[in-house]
Amino acid sequence: MRVALALGGLAALFALPFWLIPAIDPEGSGFWQHIFVTIFVFAAMACAWNILGGFAGQLSLGQTIFYGIGGYAGAMLNQHFGLIPWFGGIVGAAVAVAVAVFIAWPCLRLRGPFFALSTIAFLEVIRLLAIHFKDFTGGSAGLPVPMFVGTEMRIGWAWMLFREKENYLIIAFGLMALALAVSWLVRNSRLGFYLVAVREREDAARAVGVNATGVKLAAFAISAALTSLVGTFHGIYLNFIDPETMFSLPTAIQVAMFALIGGLGTVTGPIWGTLLVVPIAEAARGWLGAAANGLHGLVYGLVLVGVVLTMPKGLVGSIGPWLKRRFGGVAEVDSAARIQPPAPAAPGEERPPVGEPLLEARNLVKKFGGLVATSDVSITLREGEVLGVIGPNGAGKTTLFNLLSGFLPPSSGGVRVRLADGAWVSPNSPHGFAAAGVARTFQIVQPFTGLSVRENIMLGAFHGTRSAVEARRIAEEVAATVGLTGLLDAEARSLTVGGAKRLEVARALAMKPRVLLLDEVMAGLNPADVQQAVELIKRVRDSGVSVIAIEHVMAAVMALSDHIVVINSGRLIAEGPPSEIARNPAVIEAYLGEEYAHAAA
Amino acid sequence: MDILLQLIANGALLGGVFALISIGLTLIFGIVRVVNFAHGEFLMVGLYATWIMASQLGLHPYVAALPLAVVFFFLGALMQRAIIQPLMNADPHIQIFATVGIGTALANGALMLFSADLRSVDLPWARQATDLWGIASVSRGNLVAFFVSFAATGALIAFLNRTHLGRAIRAVAQNRYAAPLMGIDVNRIYAITFGIGTGCVGLAAAVLAPLYPAFPTVGSFFVLTAFVVVVLGGMGSLEGAVIGALIIGLVESLAGYYIAPDLKEVVYFAIFLGILIVRPAGLFGVRGNE
């Protein structure tokens, strides 16, 4: 239904300038067709920009680098080697990808305004270089797109150059459709989920095995290639290219603007944004002529400020949910009421025996400057075991978890994990640990608040599958296990503390880990919820997952753990079975003070 | 040798111009934590305002400097209240878009009102050369800009360190959550700081008007350099901005002569990218500010 509506809308958008306007107003149709070519071109670029700026949240203001590369590749290969622009476009896209990777390497580690500034700087450098090397580029004088070379007429489909303007409409529309289709595919693929996850919470994304730099790089490359294709076509359409128009900062800003006005990170938003503002500005320019110089920019600027202040999510992001509430009848969910107890263990499910070591930390040391947060800690997790980690506040338990999951590199010592095939590996990054089968939760819950519960769990499931359908199935299965089935469609930000903790566990479970690190999943829960959490962890254990749990709820730790390690001031002060630990004087002292230790002894 | 000395003098004076433009930008970033992409357009508006006052009212640009700074203070404070304040807790990209939108609207508004022609303030005195101890010859206007930039920076630093309001401003910069617990009205501080930052641009515009013509895109001509200066010196550091400006002025002057006139900007953009990558806090910035 929605797809049919979207395709219908697109068809109408094409039919309007192609058939309808020429039929009504044959005289003025050239003007309108020019406006629509402009709309399609900018919509395509805004869609491409949105993959990087919206999905990945990397606000590039240098996107015309790739537009210019495409334009120059088409024109220069045409001029110097007599190659058709279709080929030039492909070469341009390849160069654009290479340049994107080169630029991304230093820029992607910068955040917010600094990323934007660095992309502007690259754009300026490339523009200045294009002016300087005039032997290749024609310098500031520019390059005309030749229609005749000697006696050869370079016109027609092969050369992308026409006398009949409708043909330009076809190509421009095709580019927009391509950008939209790629954008849709990205958003609905694993890559799209990963991009949104990285944008919202990079740490939590890395915990579910996302290679944050890798996916941002992919977004940059896809966006660059699409933009370059548009540049090749537009250069020929304009009949002339020069560094000022091809590597233009104002154009780069406009493209980003259109996407924001329409709705950052939505699939169709960039098109709506372009449709809203380009016709106003272009029509005014056409009617008022030179008197309106600057008018389009003024309109863009004012609309942008207005949108930012009144609906920062853009047209689609703000009006879409309103329409849904108004007509879709989605009622607000009372999230507390919808949480069910976790599914009971299947009858006959037997606990597997504790086996060989699965994860080993050897002599881990972590120093922050002069502070030693972890001091010579060695622990071993055996297959099928629940290992409890206890210790007073500030003892260094979470630091230990960060070392065990690759979020912090140890100052010395190492962690190794046994793979399913028996080989031992020592990963050094969060996604490396995830790939080795280690999943974790965060003490301070890190849901992707803008996504639904289902999508949150799917992010974990994508670790094991590329298919969105499969990920969806796994998400539903895991939701049933933890008791979140009734909330699958709720936004993650609407969850209660208990719900959010379960979501945290569900996301980790959906990764189908062999080792699960649980960081205080029971803190802040009421006694009934704690009881359910204990049952849940037992089930997880019985299904063959080995667990390391940091926990303060003593009754639960004692009931669950096969083995307990006690950490204080970064050191391992005791370990053993729960019954021994409860009587260990060092532990009592660490928790309650020296007098109690004597009293107990 | 003579040429080298002349180039160094030119570079230092150009650095003075850049410093004058950059101190407002770095102040606003350091305290309000907003990168004002419309900063260059404020300068453009100031240049036009000076031109109008000079050509219509016959006001000497240097006389216009203080009143313009005061007017710009209120404009900046107003903009902060109306547009930046509601977005203080929004994503950084929303703040970027807001200031980009203001800049785009101002530049194009100027294009509509004044067309793309260059409008120069006629003050031959400022363009005349004066001899510096026989080693270099520089324009008087540049010399004025150089000294004004040092005076303005010195005054600002003294204000921030010696006055109660200045201390309150620094307190907000250091911890915007603890400052209100000390009885500081954080939002008022933001508006004042934004006003002071824009006031600096007004002052800069009046002092620079005899040297540079007003045209709609003059802002982006200067603002990119100002960003380079501010990042180099460390976002938020006034001393850093002055030293960064002198470095960039010298780089521009020397690279323009020894490398190629049209590649001098490439050189300092390369420095800019290098600094962002290697030491994002800049030469004098506080780590963590980035």
Automatic annotation (TrEMBL), chain A:
The protein's matches in SMART domains, at most eight in alphabetical order, are given as: AAA
Residue ranges annotated for the ABC transporter domain, each copy included: 359-594
Q: Where in the cell is it found?
A: Cell membrane
Designated name of the protein: Branched-chain amino acid ABC transporter ATP-binding protein/permease
Q: Which GO terms describe its cellular component?
A: plasma membrane
The regions listed as transmembrane in this protein's record are 32-52, 59-77, 83-107, 114-133, 169-186, 217-240, 252-278, 298-316
Alphabetically list the UniProt keywords.
Answer: ATP-binding, Cell membrane, Membrane, Nucleotide-binding, Transmembrane, Transmembrane helix, Transport
One of the entry's Gene Ontology molecular-function terms is: L-phenylalanine transmembrane transporter activity
Kindly list any coiled-coil regions of this protein: none
Q: Which domain of life is it from?
A: Bacteria
Membrane topology (UniProt): Multi-pass membrane protein
Q: Principal localization?
A: membrane
Which species does the entry assign this protein to? Answer: Neoroseomonas soli
Tell me if Cell inner membrane is a UniProt keyword of this record. Answer: no
Query: SUPFAM superfamilies, alphabetically?
Result: P-loop containing nucleoside triphosphate hydrolases
Automatic annotation (TrEMBL), chain B:
Q: Where does this one sit in the cell? A: Cell membrane
Which keywords are on file for this protein? Answer: Amino-acid transport, Cell membrane, Membrane, Transmembrane, Transmembrane helix, Transport
The way this protein sits in the membrane is described as:
Multi-pass membrane protein
Q: Which residue ranges traverse the bilayer?
A: 12-35, 65-84, 96-116, 143-160, 189-208, 214-234, 241-260, 266-286
Q: Which GO terms label this protein's molecular function in UniProt? A: transmembrane transporter activity
What processes does the entry annotate via GO biological process terms? amino acid transport
List, alphabetically, the InterPro entries matched.
ABC_transp_permease, BCAA_transport_permease
Q: Name one GO cellular component term.
A: plasma membrane
In the record, the note on similarity to other proteins reads:
Belongs to the binding-protein-dependent transport system permease family. LivHM subfamily.
Q: What is this protein called?
A: Branched-chain amino acid ABC transporter permease
